[in-house]
Protein backbone atom coordinates (compact mmCIF):
# COMPACT_ATOMS: atom_id res chain seq x y z
CA UNK A 1 0.00 0.00 0.00
CA UNK A 2 1.21 3.50 -0.78
CA UNK A 3 1.98 6.47 1.41
CA UNK A 4 0.20 9.34 -0.28
CA UNK A 5 0.13 13.11 0.12
CA UNK A 6 -2.70 15.14 -1.42
CA UNK A 7 -1.64 18.78 -1.54
CA UNK A 8 -4.67 21.03 -1.69
CA UNK A 9 -7.08 18.37 -0.46
CA UNK A 10 -10.36 20.03 -1.44
CA UNK A 11 -13.34 19.10 -3.62
CA UNK A 12 -11.48 16.59 -5.82
CA UNK A 13 -8.65 15.74 -3.42
CA UNK A 14 -10.96 14.72 -0.59
CA UNK A 15 -12.86 12.31 -2.84
CA UNK A 16 -9.55 10.89 -4.04
CA UNK A 17 -8.28 10.55 -0.48
CA UNK A 18 -11.42 8.72 0.64
CA UNK A 19 -11.13 6.28 -2.26
CA UNK A 20 -7.45 5.59 -1.60
CA UNK A 21 -7.93 5.22 2.15
CA UNK A 22 -10.77 2.77 1.56
CA UNK A 23 -8.32 0.62 -0.39
CA UNK A 24 -5.90 0.58 2.53
CA UNK A 25 -3.49 3.32 1.46
CA UNK A 26 -2.08 5.71 4.04
CA UNK A 27 -3.28 9.18 3.04
CA UNK A 28 -2.42 12.68 4.26
CA UNK A 29 -4.46 15.70 3.19
CA UNK A 30 -2.60 19.01 3.15
CA UNK A 31 -4.70 22.13 3.72
CA UNK A 32 -4.31 25.48 5.44
CA UNK A 33 -7.12 24.34 7.74
CA UNK A 34 -7.49 20.55 7.55
CA UNK A 35 -9.85 20.29 10.54
CA UNK A 36 -12.80 19.41 8.29
CA UNK A 37 -11.19 16.44 6.55
CA UNK A 38 -12.81 13.00 6.95
CA UNK A 39 -11.22 10.82 9.64
CA UNK A 40 -9.66 8.38 7.17
CA UNK A 41 -7.53 11.21 5.71
CA UNK A 42 -4.76 12.27 8.08
CA UNK A 43 -4.62 16.07 8.38
CA UNK A 44 -1.50 18.04 7.55
CA UNK A 45 -1.70 21.79 8.19
CA UNK A 46 0.37 23.82 5.73
CA UNK A 47 0.16 26.63 3.19
CA UNK A 48 1.67 25.86 -0.21
CA UNK A 49 2.55 29.52 -0.69
CA UNK A 50 4.61 29.59 2.54
CA UNK A 51 7.68 27.31 2.33
CA UNK A 52 8.29 27.30 6.09
CA UNK A 53 4.99 25.49 6.66
CA UNK A 54 6.03 22.63 4.36
CA UNK A 55 8.82 21.42 6.62
CA UNK A 56 8.30 17.99 8.06
CA UNK A 57 6.07 16.44 5.42
CA UNK A 58 5.21 12.77 5.98
CA UNK A 59 8.29 10.65 5.29
CA UNK A 60 8.79 8.08 2.52
CA UNK A 61 5.97 9.28 0.30
CA UNK A 62 5.18 7.09 -2.69
CA UNK A 63 2.61 9.32 -4.37
CA UNK A 64 2.09 13.08 -4.33
CA UNK A 65 -0.99 14.73 -5.83
CA UNK A 66 -1.30 18.48 -6.37
CA UNK A 67 -5.06 19.14 -6.53
CA UNK A 68 -5.15 22.64 -5.08
CA UNK A 69 -7.50 25.39 -6.27
CA UNK A 70 -6.93 29.13 -5.73
CA UNK A 71 -9.07 31.27 -3.45
CA UNK A 72 -7.92 34.37 -5.32
CA UNK A 73 -9.11 34.30 -8.94
CA UNK A 74 -6.65 36.71 -10.52
CA UNK A 75 -3.18 36.49 -11.97
CA UNK A 76 -1.47 36.93 -8.62
CA UNK A 77 -3.61 34.20 -7.03
CA UNK A 78 -2.86 31.73 -9.81
CA UNK A 79 0.84 32.54 -9.87
CA UNK A 80 1.15 32.27 -6.11
CA UNK A 81 -0.54 28.87 -5.92
CA UNK A 82 0.16 27.05 -9.16
CA UNK A 83 3.66 28.34 -9.85
CA UNK A 84 5.19 29.33 -6.52
CA UNK A 85 3.17 26.84 -4.47
CA UNK A 86 4.10 23.97 -6.74
CA UNK A 87 7.75 25.02 -6.71
CA UNK A 88 7.67 25.23 -2.90
CA UNK A 89 6.25 21.72 -2.61
CA UNK A 90 8.83 20.18 -4.95
CA UNK A 91 11.63 21.99 -3.12
CA UNK A 92 10.35 20.76 0.25
CA UNK A 93 10.31 17.19 -1.04
CA UNK A 94 13.87 17.54 -2.33
CA UNK A 95 15.17 19.09 0.90
CA UNK A 96 13.67 16.22 2.87
CA UNK A 97 15.28 13.64 0.58
CA UNK A 98 11.96 12.30 -0.64
CA UNK A 99 11.76 10.21 -3.81
CA UNK A 100 8.09 9.74 -4.67
CA UNK A 101 7.31 7.32 -7.46
CA UNK A 102 4.95 9.80 -9.09
CA UNK A 103 3.80 13.42 -8.85
CA UNK A 104 0.38 14.12 -10.38
CA UNK A 105 -0.80 17.65 -11.10
CA UNK A 106 -4.33 18.75 -11.95
CA UNK A 107 -4.29 21.39 -14.66
CA UNK A 108 -7.23 22.59 -16.75
CA UNK A 109 -8.54 22.81 -20.30
CA UNK A 110 -8.19 26.58 -19.78
CA UNK A 111 -4.77 26.18 -21.43
CA UNK A 112 -6.57 25.90 -24.79
CA UNK A 113 -7.64 29.08 -26.58
CA UNK A 114 -9.80 27.37 -29.23
CA UNK A 115 -13.35 28.73 -29.16
CA UNK A 116 -15.02 27.90 -32.48
CA UNK A 117 -16.09 24.33 -31.76
CA UNK A 118 -12.68 22.83 -32.60
CA UNK A 119 -11.73 19.42 -31.28
CA UNK A 120 -8.71 19.49 -28.98
CA UNK A 121 -6.50 16.80 -27.50
CA UNK A 122 -3.13 16.53 -25.80
CA UNK A 123 -1.31 17.52 -29.02
CA UNK A 124 -3.42 20.58 -29.82
CA UNK A 125 -1.81 24.05 -29.64
CA UNK A 126 -1.96 25.72 -26.23
CA UNK A 127 -2.08 29.47 -26.65
CA UNK A 128 -4.12 30.67 -23.65
CA UNK A 129 -5.51 34.18 -23.83
CA UNK A 130 -6.12 34.68 -20.12
CA UNK A 131 -4.02 34.61 -16.95
CA UNK A 132 -5.48 31.31 -15.75
CA UNK A 133 -4.38 29.37 -18.81
CA UNK A 134 -0.98 31.03 -18.90
CA UNK A 135 -0.19 30.30 -15.24
CA UNK A 136 -1.42 26.70 -15.54
CA UNK A 137 0.75 26.17 -18.59
CA UNK A 138 3.70 27.56 -16.63
CA UNK A 139 2.90 25.15 -13.81
CA UNK A 140 2.66 22.22 -16.24
CA UNK A 141 6.19 22.98 -17.45
CA UNK A 142 7.43 23.00 -13.85
CA UNK A 143 5.77 19.66 -13.17
CA UNK A 144 7.14 17.96 -16.26
CA UNK A 145 10.69 19.24 -15.68
CA UNK A 146 10.83 18.50 -11.94
CA UNK A 147 13.14 15.70 -10.70
CA UNK A 148 10.30 13.23 -9.98
CA UNK A 149 8.29 11.15 -12.48
CA UNK A 150 5.23 13.27 -13.21
CA UNK A 151 1.83 13.29 -14.89
CA UNK A 152 -0.26 16.34 -15.81
CA UNK A 153 -4.04 15.92 -16.06
CA UNK A 154 -5.98 18.67 -17.83
CA UNK A 155 -9.44 18.56 -16.30
CA UNK A 156 -12.56 19.84 -18.03
CA UNK A 157 -15.22 21.71 -16.04
CA UNK A 158 -15.71 19.91 -12.75
CA UNK A 159 -19.20 19.33 -11.36
CA UNK A 160 -20.65 17.09 -8.69
CA UNK A 161 -22.41 16.99 -5.33
CA UNK A 162 -22.32 20.39 -3.67
CA UNK A 163 -21.71 22.28 -6.89
CA UNK A 164 -25.25 23.04 -7.90
CA UNK A 165 -25.03 26.50 -9.47
CA UNK A 166 -26.07 25.30 -12.92
CA UNK A 167 -28.94 23.17 -11.64
CA UNK A 168 -30.21 25.96 -9.40
CA UNK A 169 -30.07 28.50 -12.21
CA UNK A 170 -32.34 26.24 -14.26
CA UNK A 171 -34.59 25.55 -11.30
CA UNK A 172 -35.09 29.22 -10.43
CA UNK A 173 -35.45 30.38 -14.02
CA UNK A 174 -32.32 32.52 -14.27
CA UNK A 175 -30.48 30.21 -16.69
CA UNK A 176 -30.25 31.37 -20.29
CA UNK A 177 -28.96 29.82 -23.50
CA UNK A 178 -26.71 31.93 -25.72
CA UNK A 179 -28.18 32.65 -29.12
CA UNK A 180 -26.37 31.78 -32.33
CA UNK A 181 -24.42 28.62 -33.18
CA UNK A 182 -23.77 25.82 -30.66
CA UNK A 183 -21.54 26.73 -27.72
CA UNK A 184 -19.76 23.54 -26.71
CA UNK A 185 -18.96 22.79 -23.09
CA UNK A 186 -16.88 20.00 -21.58
CA UNK A 187 -17.39 18.40 -18.19
CA UNK A 188 -16.12 15.76 -15.82
CA UNK A 189 -17.80 14.59 -12.63
CA UNK A 190 -15.83 14.97 -9.41
CA UNK A 191 -15.84 11.20 -8.87
CA UNK A 192 -14.31 10.67 -12.29
CA UNK A 193 -11.67 13.32 -11.52
CA UNK A 194 -10.68 11.25 -8.51
CA UNK A 195 -10.95 8.03 -10.50
CA UNK A 196 -8.70 9.33 -13.27
CA UNK A 197 -6.03 10.45 -10.79
CA UNK A 198 -6.13 7.14 -8.96
CA UNK A 199 -5.92 5.27 -12.27
CA UNK A 200 -2.96 7.27 -13.57
CA UNK A 201 -1.16 6.87 -10.26
CA UNK A 202 -1.31 3.10 -10.50
CA UNK A 203 -0.78 2.12 -14.15
CA UNK A 204 2.80 1.05 -14.89
CA UNK A 205 3.95 3.57 -17.50
CA UNK A 206 1.64 6.57 -17.89
CA UNK A 207 2.28 9.21 -20.50
CA UNK A 208 3.20 12.66 -19.16
CA UNK A 209 -0.05 14.38 -20.22
CA UNK A 210 -3.74 13.46 -20.31
CA UNK A 211 -6.90 15.40 -21.10
CA UNK A 212 -9.76 14.35 -18.80
CA UNK A 213 -13.28 15.10 -20.01
CA UNK A 214 -16.33 12.89 -20.36
CA UNK A 215 -17.48 11.35 -23.64
CA UNK A 216 -19.86 14.08 -24.76
CA UNK A 217 -18.89 17.69 -25.38
CA UNK A 218 -22.34 19.25 -25.30
CA UNK A 219 -23.92 22.46 -26.51
CA UNK A 220 -24.70 24.53 -23.45
CA UNK A 221 -28.30 24.97 -24.53
CA UNK A 222 -28.72 21.21 -24.84
CA UNK A 223 -27.55 20.74 -21.25
CA UNK A 224 -29.81 23.47 -19.88
CA UNK A 225 -32.89 22.23 -21.73
CA UNK A 226 -32.25 18.67 -20.56
CA UNK A 227 -31.97 19.84 -16.96
CA UNK A 228 -35.21 21.80 -17.31
CA UNK A 229 -36.98 18.65 -18.51
CA UNK A 230 -35.67 16.65 -15.55
CA UNK A 231 -36.70 19.37 -13.11
CA UNK A 232 -40.11 19.84 -14.77
CA UNK A 233 -39.61 23.58 -15.16
CA UNK A 234 -39.92 25.83 -18.23
CA UNK A 235 -36.99 25.74 -20.66
CA UNK A 236 -34.38 28.47 -20.24
CA UNK A 237 -34.64 31.67 -22.22
CA UNK A 238 -32.37 32.54 -25.13
CA UNK A 239 -30.29 35.71 -24.83
CA UNK A 240 -27.38 37.31 -26.69
CA UNK A 241 -24.11 35.72 -25.64
CA UNK A 242 -22.66 39.13 -24.77
CA UNK A 243 -25.23 39.47 -21.97
CA UNK A 244 -24.22 36.22 -20.26
CA UNK A 245 -21.47 35.59 -17.74
CA UNK A 246 -18.42 33.64 -18.90
CA UNK A 247 -19.48 30.45 -17.08
CA UNK A 248 -22.84 30.64 -18.84
CA UNK A 249 -21.36 31.21 -22.30
CA UNK A 250 -18.79 28.41 -22.29
CA UNK A 251 -15.63 28.40 -24.39
CA UNK A 252 -16.92 26.33 -27.33
CA UNK A 253 -14.21 23.75 -27.85
CA UNK A 254 -14.63 19.98 -27.85
CA UNK A 255 -12.25 17.83 -25.80
CA UNK A 256 -11.18 14.34 -26.83
CA UNK A 257 -10.50 11.74 -24.13
CA UNK A 258 -9.09 9.03 -26.43
CA UNK A 259 -5.67 8.90 -24.74
CA UNK A 260 -7.27 8.43 -21.34
CA UNK A 261 -9.56 5.67 -22.58
CA UNK A 262 -6.62 3.93 -24.29
CA UNK A 263 -4.83 3.90 -20.94
CA UNK A 264 -7.66 1.74 -19.58
CA UNK A 265 -9.78 4.22 -17.66
CA UNK A 266 -13.55 3.69 -17.73
CA UNK A 267 -15.85 6.53 -16.75
CA UNK A 268 -18.39 6.19 -13.98
CA UNK A 269 -20.35 9.09 -15.52
CA UNK A 270 -19.69 9.03 -19.29
CA UNK A 271 -21.98 11.98 -20.10
CA UNK A 272 -23.58 14.95 -18.38
CA UNK A 273 -26.88 13.03 -18.34
CA UNK A 274 -25.33 10.29 -16.20
CA UNK A 275 -23.65 12.70 -13.80
CA UNK A 276 -26.43 15.23 -13.39
CA UNK A 277 -28.97 12.42 -13.28
CA UNK A 278 -27.20 10.97 -10.26
CA UNK A 279 -27.06 14.39 -8.62
CA UNK A 280 -30.78 14.99 -9.17
CA UNK A 281 -31.54 11.57 -7.71
CA UNK A 282 -29.34 12.35 -4.72
CA UNK A 283 -27.13 9.35 -5.38
General form: globular
Residue windows where pLDDT falls under 50 for at least 5 positions: none
% residues in beta strands: 15-25%
Lateral strand order in the biggest sheet: 3-2-1-4-5-7-12
CATH class category name: Alpha Beta
| Overall structural domain count | 1
List the helices and strands in order: EHEEEHEEHEEHEEEHEEHEHEHH
Q: What Rg is obtained from the alpha carbons, in whole angstroms?
A: 19 Å
How would you characterize this protein structure?
The chain has 283 residues and is α/β, with parallel strands linked by helices. The chain has a single domain (3-163, 186-217, 256-269), classed as Rossmann fold (3-Layer(aba) Sandwich). Helices cover 35% and strands 20% of the residues. It contains 9 helices and 15 strands. It has helices spanning 11-22, 75-95, 131-144, 165-171, 190-202, 220-231, 246-249, 258-262, 272-281; strands spanning 3-7, 26-31, 42-45, 63-66, 102-108, 119-120, 150-155, 157-159, 176-178, 184-185, 187-189, 209-212, 218-219, 237-239, 254-255. The strands form 5 sheets. A 7-stranded parallel beta sheet has the order 3-2-1-4-5-7-12, sandwiched between helices. α6 runs parallel beside α9 (272-281). It is globular, with a radius of gyration of 19 Å.
Topology of this structure?
Blueprint: E1 3-7, H1 11-22, E2 26-31, E3 42-45, E4 63-66, H2 75-95, E5 102-108, E6 119-120, H3 131-144, E7 150-155, E8 157-159, H4 165-171, E9 176-178, E10 184-185, E11 187-189, H5 190-202, E12 209-212, E13 218-219, H6 220-231, E14 237-239, H7 246-249, E15 254-255, H8 258-262, H9 272-281
Amino acid sequence: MSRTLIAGCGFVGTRLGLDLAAEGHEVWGLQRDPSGLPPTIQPRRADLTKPATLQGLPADLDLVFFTAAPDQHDDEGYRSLYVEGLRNLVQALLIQGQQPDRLLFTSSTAVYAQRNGEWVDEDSPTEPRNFAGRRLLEAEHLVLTNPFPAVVVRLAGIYGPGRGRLVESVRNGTAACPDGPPVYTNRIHRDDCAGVLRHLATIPEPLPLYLAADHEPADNGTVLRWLAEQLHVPPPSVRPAAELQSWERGSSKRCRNDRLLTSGYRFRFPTFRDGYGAILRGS
